[in-house]
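Closing statement on the uridine-5'-diphosphate sub-project.
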Amino acid sequence: ATQEKEEAPHAVGRRVVLFPLPFQGHLSPMLQLAELLRARGLPVTVLHTDFNAPDPTRHPELAFVPIHEALPTSATSPDADIVAQLLALNSGCEAPFREALASLLRREDVACAVVDGQWYAALGAASALGVPVLALRTDSAATFGSLLAFPRLRDAGYVPIKVAEERRDELVPELEPLRVRDLIRIDGSDVDALCGFISRVADAARASASGVVLNSFDAIEAPELARIEKELSCPAFAVGPLHRMCPGPAPAEHGLHAPDRGCLAWLDAHPARSVLYVSLGSVARVDRGVFEEMAWGLAGSGVPFLWVVRPGSVRGGGADEPPNGLDEEARSRGKVVAWAPQLEVLAHEAVGAFWTHCGWNSTLESVCAGVPMLAQPCFADQTVNARYVTHRWGVGLEVGDVIDRVRVAERVRMVMLGEEGDRAREKVRDLKLQADQCVAASLAVDNLVRYVLSL
Ligand code: UDP
């Protein structure tokens, strides 16, 4: 291993400029990549928005430069339509990003920029300034592949899903095991706006990116990664699982919210594999009715649970109040927190399964901790990830389309105590071992650093 490390490329001098999208699920992998590149000897500057700005004191070896954007409220409000928000962020940040990058170019030798793949405007802007630019995809290779295939899917009538309603359960030929219903969608957003956004993202990757960096690894997505390289005719570096590769501060410290660490002591008081961890990530919101069914289902399951209920995550309010009528026994069996130190929770031996929205970071974190999942995808790429969890890797079960207390209780018991849960646990442990091997070898990172130095 020592010899491998000596042979790994170690860079000198040339700076890499990173530009993360300002949301939790995007900031963490970008900052993890930043630490990884810095540890290989590349000086790193992180250009960032004032909105959801990362905390520079947590990354003393990285340089941080705010771009000082001016954004409309449609770009920053938690109630904003997600597609409108992404479009507004792109148009509002394009000029300030270009100016910040141009100003850096006057002072520094910049090897390349790595921008979040959703920043189609920044991809174009960097390329127009003559800076080689890589797109960091913080979703899975399967999801990115499905975005690249979108125009063909639209021509074939698979999307938008409203048009293809009666074909919901059909397998999509070039994207199996995905069905029509698993394709990326954002309820409530204008379908044309979503399709327009996806084309801009795909077109910018095709036109401007010298490569793609993905938070994934060969053992779980080799065919999907190969398809992306073929489709874009540029290299794809699967440098994940980034939260495990990263040598910097504990990944939890990339967080925008302060975790409630009291839940770790609460877990300490529980036997191995006895607790269900429940979290729907940093963005998803549920209706009050769904929230209540989740609570009643958890109560009815008889299983101890640690539940992240983010303030504001229940539409119609009342996230802080447990549903009326839950009895004392159920309340005392559960612990509710506003934000958890998720990586530590998943690594805790008391945790037996993870009821997740299948955000890509949460999915990878669960796989790497060897924890089986109960999948409740809410929107965007979560349906794609959930399908891979349940049908490609077999590391989890579905909660089901309708969140209903009887079904929830049954599924919770199944994943925690049933044979289905045992099978998923066995498979996820296998994937965890493969992830461990990938982390130990870190070949893709070496390849990425070599490529950056060759640009
Ligand atoms: N997370 C956390 N504590 C919580 C909930 C989430 O630290 O209570 C972290 C989680 O570890 C993951 C990220 O927030 O790294 C959520 O990203 P993901 O891609 O799973 O979902 P998103 O929030 O983007 O929907």
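Residues 370 and 449 are 29 Å apart (CA to CA). With this model delivered, the sub-project is considered complete and its resources will be redirected to Aim 3.
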